Amino acid sequence: QVQLVESGGELVQAGGSLRLSCAFSGGTFSSYVIVWFRQAPGRERESVAGIRWNGINTYYAESVKGRFTISRDNAKNTVYLQMNSLKLEDTAVYYCAARPSTVIASAASLYDYWGQGTQVTVSS
């Protein structure tokens, strides 16, 4: 069974940086599209960034473009989310999700495999 485990979330000051990791197991990593989502209390889960198997085709939400960078290391079965210039509104639980596809999709309902989430808190 495919499993995903996120790590790296912590308290950080506004304007600071953080790198999240998503470890993948139980399947052929290069066959899956990986997408990062986030959810704050009382809000809908929203997509943040996604990446195709080749590590080149990517997707970013408008709110994070220019600040966040998604990447993947197929040799390590790991996806990363580099978060720079963090803002208060970036505070949320961040999840990674996987789907056996060659096309990036931003809708959470399309993903069957999810990690447990990691908390990111941005303070002023």
Task: Explain what the structure shows.
This protein is an all-beta fold. Helices cover 0% and strands 48% of the residues. The chain has strands spanning 3-7, 11-13, 18-25, 33-39, 46-51, 58-60, 68-73, 78-83, 92-99, 113-114, 118-123. The strands form two sheets. Strands 2, 4, 5, 6, 9, 10 and 11 form a seven-stranded mixed β-sheet that branches. A hairpin with a 4-residue loop joins strand 7 (68-73) and strand 8 (78-83). It is globular. It starts with a strand and ends with a strand.
Short recap of the structure:
This protein is mainly beta and 124 residues long. It is built from no helices and eleven strands.
How would a textbook summarize the main sheet?
7 strands, mixed
Distance between the termini: 41 Å
Low-confidence stretches: none
Query: H/E series, N to C?
Result: EEEEEEEEEEE
Total beta-strand segments: 11
**Rg estimate, integer Å:** 13 Å
Question: What is the fold's blueprint, element by element?
Answer:
Elements: E1 3-7, E2 11-13, E3 18-25, E4 33-39, E5 46-51, E6 58-60, E7 68-73, E8 78-83, E9 92-99, E10 113-114, E11 118-123
Features:
124 residues, mainly beta, seven-stranded mixed beta sheet, four-stranded antiparallel beta sheet, 11 strands, 0% helix, 48% strand, globular
